[in-house]
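**User:**
My hope is that you can spare some time for a protein that puzzles me. This is the protein in question:
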Amino acid sequence: MLHVKHLLSPLISFAIVLVIWAAVSFAGLFPDTIFPPPWDVWDAGGELYASGLLMSDMKASLGRAAVGFGIGSSLGVVLGVLTGRLAWVQAVFSPFLRVIRPIPAIALVPVAIVWFGIGEGSKYFVIAYTVFLAVWFNTHHGMSFVPETYIRASRSLGASRRREFLAVVIPAAAPHIMAGIRLGVALAFLSLVAAELTGASSGIGYRLQEARQYIRTDRMFALLIELGVLGALIDLVVQSIGTRLVHWDIG
């Protein structure tokens, strides 16, 4: 019964939005070139699929997001663990990381092009940067605020520092780490479009820019929907994995 309820809720939500969208289009409140009706967006998506661009762009974008996420999340977890548990590492790195954290990914596009050129390296860099900061912050927070009672209890039972770290600290911080990883997945897609401004010739972000140049808002909407659906599906997968791995406390 719960599974049916969880399935019906998003379907009803999308149906309501679709009805409102269609009603606005029928009313003619906006020109189709500015706010395309859902049937035009459907046709545009069909055109992209029939031409093979939809799938090839999706494959290119997913590959970039996956590599950038892998690099950024790995570095974020490692450094977050170190800054969260070692005072001298925190003193060295945390002030710098807090300064660069507000810098948006799109602001680094010119730097990425200068450093890595217009190849795949610049795209990986922009995505990894965004993911890294989110994962680092959540990991650092989780590692820093492990309840002191847990530590005292493990030491009173004679646990070694290594066992304390693996059996107490990591499990206590795991929900925060998993939350950071889940946020990192979302940010990988968020920064994907910015990354594909660095001279891409394929990908969803590139195709969005191409559609803008030709004022194909129907294609732009189709691509945005594709990006949103992909991100939502991958988030569900990550959430499901996280629930199984960190079953004692995961949001």
